[in-house]
Amino acid sequence: xxxxxxxxxxxxxxxxxxxxxxxxxxxxxxxxxxxxxxxxxxxxxxxxxxxxxxxxxxxxxxxxxxxxxxxxxxxxxxxxxxxxxxxxxxxxxxxxxxxxxxxxxxxxxxxxxxxx
Amino acid sequence: xxxxxxxxxxxxxxxxxxxxxxxxxxxxxxxxxxxxxxxxxxxxxxxxxxxxxxxxxxxxxxxxxxxxxxxxxxxxxxxxxxxxxxxxxxxxxxxxxxxxxxxxxxxxxxxxxxxxxxxxxxxxxxxxxxxxxxxxxxxxxxxxxxxxxxxxxxxxxxxxxxxxxxxxxxxxxxxxxxxxxxxxxxxxxxxxxxxxxxxxxxxxxxxxxxxxxxxxxxxxxxxxxxxxxxxxxxxxxxxxxxxxxxxxxxxxxxxxxxxxxxxxxxxxxxxxxxxxxxxxxxxxxxxxxxxxxxxxxxxxxxxxxxxxxxxxxxxxxxxxxxxxxxxxxxxxxxxxxxxxxxxxxxxxxxxxxxxxxxxxxxxxxxxxxxxxxxxxxxxxxxxxxxxxxxxxxxxxxxxxxxxxxxxxxxxxxxxxxxxxxxxx
Lengths: 116, 424
Fold this sequence. Notes:
The complex is a heterodimer of chains A (about 120) and B (about 425).
Chain A: H1 3-18, H2 27-34, H3 59-70, H4 77-84, H5 88-100
Chain B: H1 2-16, E1 32-36, H2 40-53, E2 58-62, E3 67-69, H3 74-78, E4 88-90, H4 92-98, E5 101-103, E6 107-111, E7 116-119, E8 124-126, E9 129-132, E10 136-138, H5 162-172, E11 179-183, H6 194-208, E12 215-219, H7 228-239, E13 243-246, H8 248-251, E14 254-258, E15 263-266, E16 270-271, E17 276-279, E18 283-285, H9 287-291, E19 301-302, E20 309-310, E21 313-318, E22 323-324, H10 332-351, E23 359-369, E24 372-383, E25 386-394, H11 401-423
Parallel strand pairs in B: 1-2, 1-9, 2-5, 9-21, 11-12, 11-17, 12-13, 19-22
Antiparallel strand pairs in B: 3-4, 6-7, 7-8, 10-18, 14-15, 15-16, 20-21, 23-24, 24-25
Helix pairs in contact in B: 2-10, 2-11, 6-7
């Protein structure tokens, strides 16, 4: 398959995948940014110890939580540091990505924007 | 050797069967990524390139061990909080779930001209992009009297596996009233808070087993250390005078150690008949990286902060403890974070995948005593020619017991998540 075709197909897959989430969130950006989250929050949605599962979190709630960390209204030093320099666009992108994951469904499968 | 070569080839063929598209980016079929080292940097990089390229890139992970024991949380094993099984992980899922080819061999040499990795089996693995994540080597000559041969009598426990078990065995054999000495390493070294969490675990294990009359001396070449305030507060609170930390002005230098008599001589004092001496020496990038000319100044490898590429070779990425990562410490969390940036850049170059500005993150949790955990960390970006911290945080003295307990719950959750992220 020519590369351009592969890219178009990937873009189509991306659009389809992001359709059920929030239209304003850039899901591919969110997926990249989520690689910062997956060191602590399991992408399978499995919860161990004191770190909550965030897969399938409703986007609006996700945005509200991250804003609370960014404004230091919620108290967790790690999360405050994570949120501090995320722009509104980046938080929306993360929210779109995580909202699109079914809780417990994703078991480190290939990314939605993978080169297919 | 024949069998191993055959298994290599079958592995590569199997990986190839997943290919749907073969973008001829480099005019030679499916691009090849070879990863040296299956730790936090290498395993993560192999997984992320293979998973997210969905078979469009052939990924081979070169790792000689069948299972990996994490250095992170090895202190919890030493302190009796975790079993050895709980810090051991296998690579099978990387092959099964993501199509990574596992090359069970040691990488002996990087042929940068031919873009090949030479293995201990004699095989040569050609690469389009190479990820080098070999961890550290120890400077055996950095402590006078200590040597490779002496690492049985005076173990370091700074590389995972047998050395971790040896530290635990030596600790278990200490009699009540015995003297323990840790020689701490100079900067920069793997896991900055690690030595201090480890002596906390020594004290915990000794005290919990009726050996609270032991004395632990930390002889440090550094004037100060990571999370010093909260460690020293915690030591006094939980262990009274069991742990005594001595900086260079106080001990006046480590003059020599004698592994035969378990003696440590400093400028001011001689510690004779020690029950256990833990020597953590100076460190440098793993040999294969240095031999390939990736550490021009000798110790660690210089990288481009925006991509994790070696400044010596644009086809090579150096991750984790082996690289100079600016404000980031040498930690598993850091290596895991760097691997994701490298994987993104590699996919961008090999398959035209979308790329984004590099972002890095790190947190190190340290257990001082049951349910008393402190943390330090930050967030980082490429700035001013280095990986620069944009946010940092560190635990403070006099925090509530509740907060410290929450930190430990995070520590447990983080371990489960990062190992799933690396190996799942």
